[in-house]
């Protein structure tokens, strides 16, 4: 669905790219439909969730006494800021990326913009149809993962070209370190199934700190490496900056022909003087 939205956005300016996206969407959708039919007996893109119906999450919310609109708003807020399943606690650097994008949004390439709009459309549908706190066996946020993947090319482009100062670079390095350490910790901690899936205790963080601190230390070291690498990345050149060893304006159209004309005129005047 998200790629289909991106193809529609691209259609007027890049029909070849839009057709390529639509072809990929068609092949992927056909595979998902066949997967659902063979394994679950349903012609549906929802996979095993087709067995429960698309409105189960909403029914759970209404059964708890919340109005449909209020439940959806709470669900969206939880997907963003919940300490356990929220996106921003695990990826606070997204706020910095949005700040960088705000300074360069007018120059953004078409394809990343189209993909980002498709990702946002997917995020809206996801928080409307699914309960973000449901399920078990996952670490951090899972409802908006696909949306983040689609928005990431645009945010990466914005951050890579943003000429922020030392404060911006420091905050970016710290948030990258935190995100890497957070997910590394989730990968290193032992999984324990059971009814405690709704709690961070399910992942044995306190017991790991007491009995196996190497898991936490290893995750922290991976985060430090990621943050230090981010800090040492070169800053983008200022607009109009001259590369060392290059002549100003050497990359402009016609610059080489102008240099050639100047050289020819110099050699002509030299030969005239020698005669």
Question: What gyration radius follows from the Cα positions, in whole Å?
Answer: 26 Å
Most strands sheet = none
Q: Portion of residues in helices? A: 55-70%
Shape estimate: globular
Distance between the termini: 77 Å
* % residues in beta strands: under 5%
Could you give the order of the helices and strands? HHHHHHHHHHHH
Number of helices: 12
Spans with pLDDT under 50 lasting ≥5 residues?
Answer: 194-202, 242-260, 268-275
Residue-averaged pLDDT? 74
Task: Tell me the number of strands.
Answer: 0
Concise synopsis of the structure shown:
The protein has helices at 2-10, 15-40, 56-63, 68-81, 87-90, 93-104, 110-129, 145-161, 166-188, 205-211, 213-232, 255-274. With 275 residues, the protein is mostly helical. Helix 1 (2-10) runs antiparallel to helix 7 and helix 10 packs across helix 11 (213-232).
